[in-house]
Amino acid sequence: MPEIILKNLTKTFGSVNAVDNLDLTIEDRDFVTLLGPSGCGKTTTLRMISGLETPTAGEISIGGRVVFSSEKQINLSPDKRDVGLLFQNYALWPHMTVLQNIAFGLENMKWSKEEIRKRVKEMGDLVKISDLLDRYPSELSGGQQQRVAIARTLAPNPKVLLMDEPLSNLDAKLRMEMRAELKRLHREIESTVVYVTHDQLEAMTLATKVCLLEEGVLQQFAPPLVIYDQPANVFVGDFIGNPSMNFFDAKVDRVEGEMIVLRTSELRLEMLLMKKDYEVKSGDEVIIGLRPEDIELKPYIGENTCTIYSTLPSGMETVVRAKIKNTMFSIVVFGRVDFVVDSVMEISFPSSNYLLFNKETKEKIGAGSLKLT
User: Fold this and answer.
1) How many Å apart are CA 130 and CA 1, to the nearest integer?
2) Per the omega criterion (within 30 degrees of 0), is the bond before 94 cis?
3) What are the domain boundaries of the chain?
4) What is the torsional sign of CA 167, 170, 175, 178?
């Protein structure tokens, strides 16, 4: 299976850059999710890779072959790019059986009847619909229709599989099941997959790497846990994670080696920067970022206190909002636990991965431990 290389890829609609100078290398057998808010350019990027959309500028190569180049005047049609496409609308032929739907593309490619029969059986076994081959789409559930669409897309054995929010029509339980099936399927077919989604949970659970876009500009391209723990900037830290990261504006009071004294409007904190991307100096305006699960609550024993503002137990975890003076923290406490609103608790910061960002550029400065003083 091939790698996909995008060089300076740009797509302009009028005066708007839907995709702005995108450089991206999707390696062989990667499962890459294109993630971002609506209008960020993820579907446009997918359509340009497939050949359904013509870039304004740049170059696309698939498996070492240039399929588009504005400079070399190359633009191969979708049927010559050897890619499989799967969209939100499964577009199954309603008058054809499952078998006929899967076989349709192979017949157009002039496969022999014996080859088609063998391939349809392989695909049916792969996506677990062998007992449904004689049914029509109207007789299938949403999840079964999704499996048929996947089988039809995989049948011609494309080098690259492109998916545009294929699970968004399914209910939450079925969507979770299909995520697991897609992840298993990726391992079995050993394909290169590019997958568009606006659902961060889907992106994080499926991908080997996440490509996060904002207004057509690449913000970060890295494995899911790297993006979660080491966001490149405030946008990435805020977009990834639910509940969202806590952010607090602060000013650097003084710097003592790796120790930084910070002041917010109400709090004084000390941060030991263990990982540092940029130098920090006294007087710098910064943003502190704390993941909700990296804050701990305990019964009050005389240390730093907070007041419980709200509590949302769900069984597996409880999302708590707590205040120190008028500064609000979102906190995730795991387990079957609940808290009394307006009660006083002890709050602590046991992690060593609290983040510091430059307030002007929004870029990450570094990460380290934190304590209230």
Assistant:
1) 26
2) no
3) 4-239, 246-372
4) negative
Whether 291 and 245 have beta carbons less than 8 Å apart is answered as yes
Cβ(48)–Cβ(69) below 8 Å? no
What is the DSSP pairing of strand 285-290 with strand 296-299?
A: unpaired
pLDDT level of residue 1 (50, 70, 90 thresholds): low
Helices 113-126 + 172-189 axis angle, to 10: 120
Q: Which H/E stretch holds residue 220?
A: strand 217-222
> pLDDT above 90 covers what percent of the chain?
71
CB contact set of 322 (below 8 Å; sequence gap of 6+): 297, 306, 307, 308, 309, 328, 329, 331, 345, 347
Residue 371 φ/ψ, nearest 5 degrees: -150, 150
Supply angle C-alpha 102, 104, 108, rounded to 5. Answer: 140
Dist. CA 95–CA 86, nearest whole Å: 20
Tens digit of pLDDT for each residue in 251-296?
A: 999 998 899 999 999 999 999 998 888 889 999 999 999 999 999 9
Task: List Cα–Cα distances, 212 to 80, 137, 172, in angstroms.
Answer: 28, 35, 23
Q: Helices 98-108 and 113-126: crossing angle, nearest 10°?
A: 130
Non-local CB neighbours of 59 within 8 Å, separated by 6+ positions: 5, 6, 7, 8, 9, 66, 68, 69, 70, 71, 72
CATH number of this structure's domain 246-372? 2.40.50.140
DSSP 202: H
Digit-coded pLDDT (tens) for 117-145: 999 998 888 888 899 999 999 999 888 88
How many Cβ atoms sit within 10 Å of the Cβ of residue 190? 9
Would you state the pLDDT for residue 366?
Answer: 95
β-strands 364-372, 209-214 pairing: unpaired
3-class DSSP state for residue 290? Answer: strand
What architecture (CATH level 2) is domain 4-239? 3-Layer(aba) Sandwich (3.40)
* Count of positions (residues) in the chain: 373
Distances (CA, A) of 98 to 145, 192, 358: 9, 25, 55
pLDDT, tens digit, 9 for 90 and up, residues 216-239? 999 999 999 999 999 999 999 999
